[in-house]
Amino acid sequence: MKIHSLFNDKSDLYEKARPVYPDEIYRYLVSISPSNLKAWDCACGNGQVSEGLSHYFEGVIATDVSEQQIANAKPFDNVIYRVMPSESTDFPDDSFDLVCVAQAVHWFDFPVFWPEVKRVLKPDGVFAAWGYTWPVLPDEIERIFHEQILNVIAPYWATQNSLLTGHYKDVEFPFEGLSSPKFEMKVEWDLDQFFDFIKTFSATRRCIEEHGEAFLDAAYEQIETFWSAGEKARVIPLEFVFYAGRNTE
């Protein structure tokens, strides 16, 4: 299966359900970049990170291999969207102060991607990658989430997802690592929003294609009892991983 096909069919749901990254990330990135002239948002999806970068960088180039994701991206005066693979671009050498990837670096062909990033980054430019993995839930909801959802969709994850869930420990970043703040990511969701988020998982969508949504309906009914015991909307932390490094070559 081609990677872009995992994100084409539900680009509208992806835009609605995916969490928003904290603004502190963008403030930090511009503070460590050599200037705020230009940033490249790789695998930009619907442009969520592109929007954040647009408030801090004079120009943002945002690329994705999914035409539908780009079609759904929000327009901004200083953001240019293009359909383009991150491993092969037509950008000039030394173009960017910052190259960043949110929730997607695990999909790239590293032997091809890293040389391309180094080529287009300015000397002392910054590369950053980040992503979230699992929601941190109360015990009873956590048990149902794992038993009735994660265990069911487990066979449908692509191999690359383990790099993200492993918090990038097996990714060999070819940059001089920087000591970064510990960012926290939290969302406030009702139960429907939580399940919309689950449906954006590539593994969930592939499982639904084969077996339908009955397993989600059953899990929803079980979780609803515990979810409704408190507030309708819950504040849910998400496990979060962040890397930043400097191009010293």
From TrEMBL:
Gene3D superfamilies: Vaccinia Virus protein VP39. GO terms for biological process: methylation. InterPro entries: Diverse_substrate_MTase, Methyltransf_11, SAM-dependent_MTases_sf. SUPFAM superfamilies: S-adenosyl-L-methionine-dependent methyltransferases. Keywords: Methyltransferase, Transferase. Residues 41-128 form the Methyltransferase type domain. Pfam families: Methyltransf_11 (PF08241). The keyword Ligase does not apply. GO terms for molecular function: S-adenosylmethionine-dependent methyltransferase activity. The keyword Methyltransferase applies. Signal peptide: none annotated. Belongs to the methyltransferase superfamily. This is SAM-dependent methyltransferase. It comes from Grimontia indica.
